[in-house]
User: Which sequence fits this backbone?
């Protein structure tokens, strides 16, 4: 590669007019310093090596002013010719609607803030303007700034998505009046028509007008996800959401359909009330409805993109709301500012970006001085004195710097939300320093303090050897742009939803909407990435890069003040990130360009919809987005709700108090220990001794009295503590709240009763009886012989109401059973002997056939008997003759069909016992003949399960339990995809006490946990139970991209900390996970 770097600045022509700004010294370090690594190389190397990839070539020098033609030789040795001139054609299509039979205009509600006349006028004007807008041909010059003028503020205002996405998602509008002239000043009729057109294109029925009969009765537990503005970008979300939660998704097409009222829950903010909207039902059916009284939104998002015709009223309605708001005008402006997002992508996500020199006026507080963004140099022009020479100097240094070495062309363009999509830019050869400086100078004139001028390398798309062409026709140099859409998923984690590529001519940037989208895999293949492994590696890398980009952008956004965000609850939930595929140091590299608010959504939605035209199954996009917004709405729904908790639990449940605060729950806690540490962490602490569980009915009465005396009327009641599940069910029943029936919980709580009950359930194929195991009660030694006659040996003798695996023992014959029972009845008499393991119901035992096979937990979310979510985890071998848990992993290593057997068996057992509403933990073993039930825990899974499921899959069992208890079916991932693999071991005080306490192991574990390198779940503060009644002290887990990786890390850790020993062979425990 031949590069002729310019000398630092001597030959630059003077700038035409100095920009009158005060000047302060530039803060960011100069780019002139050589960099140790390639500017596009990410900090962590991830490039996919490409054999024999040609480096990008600088364009040969060309006398300016001549017609520009360029020759380039591709790898096959062919020479191609193409014109440098490029035309950018405006797409302003007439937006017209025939006089429609659309919805009538609703009157604004009293107190509604509707945009004033000026807004309406401007809106109308925009439509007219767009219709008359002339076609503009843009000339790209290499030696001087392009001839087009800076758009007037008015032009900039409307140069929005339509300018970017010519005609996308819109049918040709027939001739007719423009909306502004047809008595549709707010554009509702027009938007309604667009919705009908989009529904028709999807093959869906038109919206039913049901507005004559107002819908009533929406209450605080009804979900309302409100989408404001343009109907098309969010249509896939509305349709999917309508199927998942019929009636919850409401499209608001006009500012007159909604009103803002001061919020009751958060003073200073507003509630959004909908009096009219298009709501979506199962199967793509939609209805125009009126709501009386108006319905309160739990979640609001809309088309905030700058330049969107609806932008004004959408932004105004969504400002400072008391419910979660997906985006806002200020956030959209930030996302549309290439400089801001590129800065974050480079500085905080560590992604390669095109080498960029940015000039800003004034202080630009939104661009932090630290950390320095590799590849982005920021020059703050604050003093007009000497500005011209500073610009020249900076431009010279940039063009001649090492970062620019691989590139031959640069682009000068203004950046900032007003400029997004205007296509305003000029292209230059690197050698033309004077022209570049002049172009920058010209752009600086008239720049506002919100904008910037960017000088950036034009990064060519990697050129790879492709199969010999079938025809001798010349190959045109093309560019590939990769557009990704990411959403803020469960636990606020970014999740890639869809990738769509666009291919265009290489000489000008490929713009959104300029071509029909295509898939990543086929694009890479077309590009010459022939090895499937390489394409997979790039796809993985793209996912990582996109999610890292979104995480960085969201983190930066979270640091803004509520005012800067457009409301305390405003957060970006859906965003796009654009990438280029470049060749850097002989390797393929993804180069992040910038983020955007809506264009990637439109492109990706189109890609998704197009697939169905050729019979492709529905992609993940609508599902992921709908789940993300519905989940957010549900989180808002639980805010401020009064939850009656029965039993606080020990340190293993410490997460509850923090989670309750995060979710905004008002907890009223009934707890036997008057000194419990949670007393100060809840809204109301109700000490009540319920440890004698044989009197739970009486306790329930007392608790109800207690509530009445305090005037408490909880919205929901639940328990996650094994000992309190029956009491909670009784209280629930007494309060008329949703929960599992007390009789069902009693059946589940008593192990022998569960199995005997299931044995009688003989309906179904297979019937629930198929999962039951022979067992007999042991109330005294007299029962042992009878039981031994009915239950074959080896068998398991354990406590009827036990928990935590305490007192479980493998017995080979009646003698051993007698001996174990004698010891147990001597040692464990009541709750005080070993709290929390069900001794409040007595110490009766059972003898149960030993079930062979692998052991699994299935955690279920069930609503009205319907399965809403299930997660299967695997347990390692238990330590016999007691059955202490040793190791576990999530996700399960079982193939899907075997997991499905477990889930189906677990659900059938729960339903057969009458457990129809709640979060349940079912323990099963899977043998050659299928699953067999060990026990049902009619509560959320214990130990580490809630933490692990959240970490691996996102959803929170606790939140799911609260939602079910409130009577709301939780929205959970329909297709749960693990984000990581976890493997963990249990530590015992008897085995590991010395290593953990004495050897400093505990401190090391805490430190590693703090750094996110291990997951530590403490089960007890102090060693619990001694000898054969010991319970595990804590669970230590490691994550990995694969289970093998997680296990390897965990084993290394256990060896290092002395958790692994010949008596506690961790390698053996983990060897079961294959
Ligand atoms: N019938 C059985 N066959 C095989 N293993 C069993 C059987 N019953 C219990 N176990 C083992 O003992 C452990 C604890 O038993 P479980 O009934 O779940 O009691 P707990 O309620 O105390 O957890 C189980 O996880 C399993 O490993
Ligand atoms: Mg158990």
Assistant:
């Amino acid at each position: 590669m031949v590069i002729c770097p310019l000398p630092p600045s001597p030959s630059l022509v003077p700038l035409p007019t100095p920009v009158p700004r005060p000047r302060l010294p530039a803060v960011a370090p100069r780019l002139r310093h050589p960099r140790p690594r390639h500017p596009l190389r990410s900090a962590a190397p991830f490039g996919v090596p490409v054999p024999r990839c040609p480096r990008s070539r600088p364009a040969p020098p060309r006398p300016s002013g001549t017609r520009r033609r360029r020759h380039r030789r591709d790898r096959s040795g062919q020479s191609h010719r193409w014109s440098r001139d490029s035309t950018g054609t405006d797409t302003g299509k007439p937006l017209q609607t025939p006089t429609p039979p659309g919805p009538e205009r609703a009157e604004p509600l009293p107190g509604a803030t509707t945009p004033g006349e000026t807004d309406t006028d401007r809106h109308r004007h925009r439509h007219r303007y767009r219709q008359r807008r002339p076609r503009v041909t843009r000339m790209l010059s290499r030696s001087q700034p392009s001839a087009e003028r800076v758009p007037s503020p008015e032009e900039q205002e409307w140069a929005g998505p339509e300018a970017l996405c010519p005609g996308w998602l819109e049918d040709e509008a027939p001739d007719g009046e423009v909306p502004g002239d047809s008595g549709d000043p707010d554009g509702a009729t027009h938007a309604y028509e667009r919705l009908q057109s989009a529904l028709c294109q999807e093959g869906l029925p038109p919206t039913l007008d049901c507005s004559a009969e107002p819908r009533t009765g929406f209450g605080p537990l009804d979900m309302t996800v409100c989408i404001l503005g343009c109907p098309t970008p969010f249509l896939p979300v509305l349709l999917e959401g309508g199927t998942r939660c019929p009636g919850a998704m409401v499209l608001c097409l006009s500012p007159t359909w909604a009103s803002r009222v001061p919020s009751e829950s958060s003073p200073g903010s507003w509630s959004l009330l909908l009096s009219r909207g298009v709501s979506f039902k199962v199967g793509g059916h939609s209805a125009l409805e009126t709501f009386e009284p108006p319905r309160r939104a739990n979640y609001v998002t809309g088309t905030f993109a700058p330049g969107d015709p609806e932008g004004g009223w959408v932004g105004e309605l969504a400002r400072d709301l008391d419910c979660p708001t997906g985006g806002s005008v200020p956030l959209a402006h930030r996302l549309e500012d290439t400089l801001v997002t590129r800065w974050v992508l480079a500085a905080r996500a560590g992604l390669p970006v095109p080498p960029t020199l940015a000039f800003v006026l004034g202080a630009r507080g939104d661009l932090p001085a630290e950390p320095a963004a590799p590849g982005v140099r920021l020059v703050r022009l604050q003093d007009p004195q000497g500005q011209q020479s500073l610009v020249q100097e900076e431009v010279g240094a940039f063009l001649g710097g090492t970062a620019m070495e691989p590139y031959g062309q640069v682009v000068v363009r203004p950046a900032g939300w007003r400029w997004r999509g205007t296509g305003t830019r000029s292209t230059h050869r690197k050698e033309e320093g004077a022209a570049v400086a002049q172009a920058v100078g010209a752009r600086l004139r008239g720049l506002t303090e919100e904008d910037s001028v960017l000088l950036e390398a034009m990064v060519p798309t990697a050129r790879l050897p492709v199969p010999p062409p079938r025809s001798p026709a010349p190959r045109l140099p093309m560019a590939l742009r990769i557009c990704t859409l990411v959403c803020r998923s469960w636990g606020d984690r970014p999740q890639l939803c869809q990738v769509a590529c666009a291919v265009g001519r290489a000489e000008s940037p490929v713009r959104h909407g300029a071509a029909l989208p295509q898939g990543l895999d086929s694009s890479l293949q077309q590009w010459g990435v022939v090895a499937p492994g390489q394409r997979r590696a790039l796809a993985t890398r793209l996912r990582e890069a996109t999610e890292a980009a979104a995480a960085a952008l969201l983190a930066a956004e979270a640091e803004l003040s509520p005012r800067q965000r457009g409301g305390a609850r405003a957060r970006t939930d859906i965003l796009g990130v654009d990438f280029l595929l470049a060749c850097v140091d002989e390797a393929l590299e993804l180069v992040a360009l910038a983020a955007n608010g809506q264009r990637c959504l439109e492109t990706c939605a189109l890609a998704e919809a197009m697939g169905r035209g050729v019979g492709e199954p529905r992609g993940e996009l609508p599902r992921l987005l709908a789940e993300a917004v519905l989940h957010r709405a549900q989180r808002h729904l639980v805010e401020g709700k009064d939850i009656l908790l029965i039993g606080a639990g020990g340190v293993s449940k410490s997460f509850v108090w923090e989670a309750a605060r995060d979710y905004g729950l008002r907890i009223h806690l009934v707890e036997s220990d008057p000194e419990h540490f949670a007393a100060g962490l809840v809204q109301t602490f109700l000490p009540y001794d319920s440890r004698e569980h044989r009197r739970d009915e009486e306790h329930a009465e007392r608790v109800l009295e207690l509530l009445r005396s305090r005037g408490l009327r909880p919205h929901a009641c639940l328990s996650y503590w094994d000992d309190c599940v029956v009491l909670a069910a009784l209280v629930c029943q007494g309060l008329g709240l949703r929960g599992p029936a007390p009789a069902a919980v009693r059946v589940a709580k008593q192990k022998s009763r569960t199995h005997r009950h299931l044995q009688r359930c003989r309906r179904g194929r297979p019937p629930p009886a198929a999962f039951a195991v022979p067992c007999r009660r042991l109330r005294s030694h007299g029962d042992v012989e009878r039981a031994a006659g009915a239950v074959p040996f080896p068998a398991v003798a354990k406590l009827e109401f036990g928990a935590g695996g305490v007192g479980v023992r493998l017995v080979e014959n009646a003698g051993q059973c007698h001996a174990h029972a004698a010891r147990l009845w001597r040692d464990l008499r009541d709750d005080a002997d070993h709290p929390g393991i069900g001794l409040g119901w007595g110490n009766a035992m059972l003898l149960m056939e030993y079930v062979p096979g692998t052991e699994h937990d299935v955690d279920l979310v069930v609503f009205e008997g319907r399965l809403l979510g299930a997660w299967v985890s695997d347990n390692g071998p238990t330590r016999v003759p007691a059955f202490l848990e040793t190791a576990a992993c999530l996700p399960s290593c079982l193939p899907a069909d075997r997991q499905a057997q477990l889930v189906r068996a677990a659900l059938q057992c729960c339903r057969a016992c009458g457990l129809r509403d709640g979060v349940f933990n079912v323990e099963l073993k899977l043998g050659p003949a299928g699953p067999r039930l060990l026990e049902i825990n009619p509560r959320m899974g214990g130990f580490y399960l809630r933490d692990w499921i959240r970490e691996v899959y996102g959803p929170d069992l606790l939140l799911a339990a609260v939602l079910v208890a409130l009577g709301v079916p939780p929205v959970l991932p329909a297709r749960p995809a693990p984000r990581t693999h976890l493997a963990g071991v249990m530590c015992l005080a008897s085995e590991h006490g010395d290593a953990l306490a004495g050897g400093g192991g505990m401190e090391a574990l805490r430190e590693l946990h703090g750094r996110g390198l291990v997951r530590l779940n403490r089960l007890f503060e102090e060693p619990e139970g001694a000898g054969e009644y010991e319970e595990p002290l804590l669970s230590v887990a490691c994550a990995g991209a694969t289970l093998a990786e997680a296990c390897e890390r965990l084993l290394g850790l256990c060896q290092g900390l002395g958790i692994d020993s010949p008596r506690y062979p961790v390698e053996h425990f983990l060897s079961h996970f294959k």
User: Anything to note?
Assistant: Residues 37 and 887 are 44 Å apart (CA to CA). The two ends are 50 Å apart (CA to CA). Residues 751, 773, 796, 798, 802-806, 808, 848-851, 855, 878, 883, 923, 934-935 surround adenosine-5'-diphosphate (ligand 1) (CB under 6 Å).
